[in-house]
Amino acid sequence: LTTAYHYPGPAAVRYPRGKGIGSHISDQPTATIEIGKSQLLKKGDNLLVINVGPLITESTAVAEHFGATLLDLRFVKPLYQEMLLKLAQSHKAIITIEDGAIMGGAGSAINELLATNGIFMPIKHFGIKDYYPEHGEREEILADYGLTAEKMISEIDHFLNLVPSAS
After folding, report:
1. Contact assessment for residue 91 and residue 47, using Cβ atoms and an 8 Å cutoff
2. Which whole number is the average pLDDT over 76-93?
């Protein structure tokens, strides 16, 4: 929030429905985040998991299960192109996890970035499919759309079996 407040142009701040996981509330002023910079949370092998938004707990569980690199994208626009391209070149497959639409979402932007730079690799996207989502409690909605750690791990196992060069 501090970053958006101090940014000289328009800024959008997304927050999840219900209780959000993220920064702790404090009386102390928080530091600003450099606009467009992602945060590398964990280094791993072969598989790159990219989190977008409040599914960081689920993304962390997925990355730990596979011994994967975990990147918290933080910003969809602008993308941290330099880091994404570097990480893509050092991994065999990418998993994107977001609580927004897959079509036209962050995963699609990453696909476009990689293709524009001649990088073609297996990519699996998790997010909301292209239809209106149902309403309900956050945990129910995540389960319905396969956005729990357990469901994603199962789908990624299947994905990696289909693409042996990615594991």
Report:
1. yes
2. 94
* Geometric angle at alpha carbon 167, from 82 and 120, rounded to 5°: 45
Question: Where do the domains of the chain lie, and which CATH numbers do they carry?
Answer: 38-166 (3.40.50.920)
CA distances from 26 to 3, 110, 121 (A): 15, 34, 42
**For 99, phi and psi rounded to 5 degrees?**
-100, 15
- Return the amino acid letter for 153: I
Element (DSSP H or E) covering residue 27: none
Per-residue pLDDT, averaged over 137-157, amounts to: 93
**Confidence (pTM):** 0.84
Report the phi/psi class of residue 18: left, alpha or beta, with left for phi > 0 and alpha for psi in -120 to 50.
Answer: left
User: What are the distances in angstroms from CA 91 to CA 117, 138, 159?
Assistant: 15, 32, 15
Residues near 140 by beta carbon (within 8 Å), at least 6 away in sequence: none
| pLDDT at residue 134, as a whole number | 75
Predicted confidence (pLDDT) per residue in 129-140, tens digit: 887 777 888 888
Distance CA 61, CA 81 (A): 25
